[in-house]
Amino acid sequence: MERAGQIFEMASRMRRHVGARLASVVWPPACMTCGADVSDPHGLCTDCWRELRLTGGAQCLRCALPMPEGYGGDGSCEECVGQRFSWGSARAATFYGGASRQLVLSLKHGDRPDLARPMATWMRRAAVDVLARADLAVPVPLHWTRRIKRRMNQSAELARRIAAEQGIDHGPGILLRTRATETQHGKNVEQRHRNVAGAFACRVSERVDGRRIVLIDDVMTTGATLNAAARVLRSSGAVSVDVLVFARVVRDESVHF
What we know:
This protein is an alpha/beta fold.
């Protein structure tokens, strides 16, 4: 069934690509989030651009949350000091909300694979150091039942773009989601970790052994899913695992590991 899901995803991607090319001939470029007229087919209008919170300031190197300017130490926020992670560093292109939230939802649920291109570009800019030492991009997988329902894995689309533009290997089939986990929405930190515990397996450990991996996902909230996936990659022989996401969720009272 896993193979059937991969074939279905490839066919859906080809159909969407052809449809997008035809649509560009008929309709003028529109803002990626609100649909307003723009000059660039992969651009944002002025109002939506103002809403996009790029991670240009100080950022925790371990969990990618924003930090006060001038914060000392080793680059980790106070909550991350002394914590054990399955990954080394984490980077995010944006903070979740406004335009970034709309981009994530459109890519994930709106049948908009074209959004992966600009989103991947912003991710590369936010993770120059991480990508410079990586030789393999691995997306967080969906269970095959969910992938058929969505018709694509949004994380795999982002990883494919990043790998191609960065000139590194892409491994969309390396990690397998072994069971259909419940949605993480509405769960606390402990429940999130318990929900994804043991939910991933490495299908081809020979492609992981001795590699420096960048693990790709669209959003990080508490990091529970990424932590579970990174743990499997490390146990399969990866030299290092770093995390790169498009959007990092920030709350007034941020939840950490």
